[in-house]
Amino acid sequence: MSERFEALVIGLGAMGAATVYQLAKAGVKVAGIDRHHPPHTFGSSHGDTRITRLSVGEGAQYVPIVRNSHRIWRELEAQSGESLFEQSGLLVLTSSPDFDPADQTDFTLRTIGLAQTYGIEHEVLDATQIRQRFAQFAEVHDSAVGYFEPGGGFVRPERCIDVQLKLAEQLGATLFIGEIVTEISSDEQGVSVTTNQRTLQADKLVISAGNWMGGLVGDPLDGLLKVYRQKLFWFELEPDADLVGSSPTFIFTHGKGDDSVNYGFPAQPGEGSLKVATAQYHTASSPDTLDRTVSMAEQRDMYAQQVEGRIAGVTDKVLKSAVCAYTVTPDRHFIIDEHPLLQHTLLVSACSGHGFKHSAALGEAFAQWCIRGTTDLDLSSFSLKRFEGNPS
Ligand SMILES: Cc1cc2nc3c(=O)[nH]c(=O)nc-3n(C[C@H](O)[C@H](O)[C@H](O)COP(=O)(O)OP(=O)(O)OC[C@H]3O[C@@H](n4cnc5c(N)ncnc54)[C@H](O)[C@@H]3O)c2cc1C
Predict the structure, then answer these.
(1) Fold assignment, 90-150+226-328
(2) pLDDT on residue 389
(3) What is the pLDDT of residue 391?
(4) pLDDT exceeding 90 applies to what percent of the chain?
(5) Strand 249-253 and strand 90-94: pairing?
(6) Rounded to whole angstroms, how far apart are CA atoms 271 and 238?
């Protein structure tokens, strides 16, 4: 007979690790399944650092979620003794020759607006103040505007996942690692999940399969989700650069469109590099055929387009690079909803390039859904209904 659990979680990356941990903490008999060995480098949750900020310019619906995450990262640190969340300070900056200060679609202005509405501690900086405080930004036009959130910064994704999975196991969770889920079915009694090694039964199921979500679940997600390859670069610091301890986490808009935005992290002690990246939404890929190496041409292009003349204190030498992938919905907001056909099943596609900061709180919410069918957080804006009649 196959083993029965109260809850099953497919995919133990950012979302799944948080969910399994919260379920185990609540005393639920839970099992998690992952095709790889999380934390790993094949999904969306690697690369050392992820930005977190309370004023989430992507939309007001995210503010209560990230607030809860910040609380939970600190709880996890207390329990594990690991450093997960660093409040390095966060600078969101627009410095572009064609910047229109009345353009309310500008990411920095949207971030400032949300911080004002939600009472989030912040400073608004003009060009002179940005130049004085953050000399690492070499191209600051006189019209530039900056948002500084002292409580913002970054989390360490691999450590967050590792800590939550270890704590979950200590609390009694069962983890099936290196097993691929091949089939899911449901009836009134519960769900049945088949892997390449076993079949499991459960009362509730959370599917958080990241890049693989569309392929695993099929309709309706495979028509809505696209996977986009992203590159991460660690540029060597100049020998006299004074960036360790003084550089913030940042999001830098220097023109119009996605290709004119880069983001980065504080230089870390002992690493001699500054991590800088962009997001691309031109060319879709698939998780199984993704090119996971960064070419020399891509390194040169990144330096020329994003770094040279814009970010001071780094050379064109790339000390380390990585490929990671976003799973993106048509409106770039998350999908969190019950499966329209499979019973007792919650679908979680919370990426679109900005999910990590919310993962701890979403895991807590998904555990509540498993236990009582509702969540304290309002997740209604992430429902599948918004795509009805307008699939992509
Ligand atoms: C380059 C990059 C930069 C980012 N920057 C930020 C940032 O600064 N701030 C921020 O908040 N967010 C950021 N994000 C987004 C954030 O990292 C993602 O939202 C988050 O990591 C997604 O987590 P996930 O659990 O959905 O996916 P993953 O962590 O990829 O987990 C999915 C898991 O499902 C498993 N799986 C898949 N199929 C199966 C199967 N059939 N059987 C068993 N297991 C399966 C996989 O092995 C994997 O472990 C970034 C993402 C990328 C790629």
Answers:
(1) D-Amino Acid Oxidase; Chain A, domain 2 (3.30.9)
(2) 77
(3) 52
(4) 97
(5) parallel
(6) 12
SS3 of residue 206 by DSSP: strand
Q: Encode pLDDT of 45-102 as tens digits.
A: 999 999 999 999 999 999 999 999 999 999 999 999 999 999 999 999 999 999 999 9
Are 173 and 24 in contact, with CB atoms under 8 Å apart? yes
What percent of the chain clears pLDDT 70, i.e. is strictly above it? 99
Q: Quick one: average pLDDT of 197-226? A: 97
How far, in Å, CA of 240 to CA of 137, rounded?
16
Distance CA 148, CA 130 (A): 10
Rounded distance, CA 319 to CA 93, Å? Answer: 26
Q: How far apart are CA 383 and CA 179, in angstroms?
A: 29
Q: Which atom of ligand 1 is nearest to the CA of 11?
A: 34
pLDDT bracket for residue 200 (50, 70, 90): very high
> Closest ligand 1 atom, CA of 211?
30
Residue 278 CB–ligand 1 contact under 6 Å: no
Q: Which atom of ligand 1 is nearest to the CA of 358?
A: 11
How many angstroms separate the CA atoms of 366 and 204, rounded? 10
Q: What CATH number matches the domain at 4-53+157-224+331-387, 3.50.50.60, 3.90.76.10, 3.40.630.10, 3.40.50.720?
A: 3.50.50.60
CB of 181 within 6 A of ligand 1: the answer is yes
Residue located nearest, by CA, to atom 33 of ligand 1: 11
Tokens describing residue 274:
């500054």
Q: How do residues 234-249 score in pLDDT, each as one tens digit?
A: 999 999 998 998 899 9
| pTM beyond cutoff 0.85 | yes
Q: Decide if 122 contacts 78 (C-beta within 8 A).
A: no
Q: What share of the chain is helix, strand, coil (3-state, %, to 5)?
A: 30, 30, 40
Spell out the domain ranges in the chain.
4-53+157-224+331-387, 90-150+226-328
